[in-house]
Write a structure and sequence with these properties.
Blueprint (H helix, E strand, L loop, with lengths): L2 H4 L7 E8 L3 H9 L1 H7 L6 E7 L6 E7 L5 E12 L3 E5 L2 E2 L3 E2 L6 E9 L2 E9 L3 H9 L2 H19 L2
Antiparallel strand pairs: 1-9, 2-3, 3-4, 4-5, 5-8, 6-7, 8-9
Helix pairs in contact: 2-3, 3-5
Length: 162
């Protein structure tokens, strides 16, 4: 399967967020791959990311625990499928670390980043198994939530570059 067919966008099943952010690609990459940094921006406030584990290799763990404002905790466990330094992260909840089937499948996420001088072209695509799951994610506020998280990533990384 070539690169294009793996990443083809299907509007019936996929959601996308794409922006150019005024942050160098290295800082965006670090924000996605260093657990202590992920915890700073990953969940739209007033939600929090209270735990994160990353084993940055194909088949490695991508684990987060989100906490709602009323204190409920929502663990998310999955694994990385593809990692291209400073360019691409692909992860899914369909598989656990070591490519073990999870029994749950909500989405596979493709996060790509491209350096444009001191800015980054950022694209996040969430691929779903069926139109109902896509709609559920849309109704949960994909664009708003992932957009807010990206705003938080930008704000967080700007504190690092000072």
């Amino acid at each position: 399967m070539n690169q294009e067919s793996k990443e083809s966008f299907n509007p019936e099943l996929d959601l996308v967020l794409e922006r150019i952010v005024e942050v160098p690609v290295e800082l965006v990459w670090n924000a996605w791959t260093i657990p202590e940094q992920v915890k700073q921006w990953f969940t739209p406030v007033p939600w929090k990311t209270i735990d994160c584990r990353i084993d940055l290799k194909p088949g490695g763990e991508f684990y987060t625990v989100m906490e709602s404002p009323d204190g409920n905790k929502f663990p998310n466990n999955g694994c990385f499928l593809e990692i291209e330094h400073l360019k691409k992260l692909v992860f899914t909840d369909s598989l656990l670390p070591g490519y073990r089937p999870s029994g749950n499948s909500f989405m596979t996420a493709f996060v790509t980043m491209e350096s444009i001088g001191t800015a980054t072209k950022y694209k996040a695509v969430a691929k779903h198994k069926d139109p109902e799951t896509k709609k559920q994610h849309e109704d949960m506020g994909f664009l708003e939530g992932w957009g807010t998280a990206l705003d938080q990533l930008v704000a967080f990384t700007k504190t690092l570059s000072k």
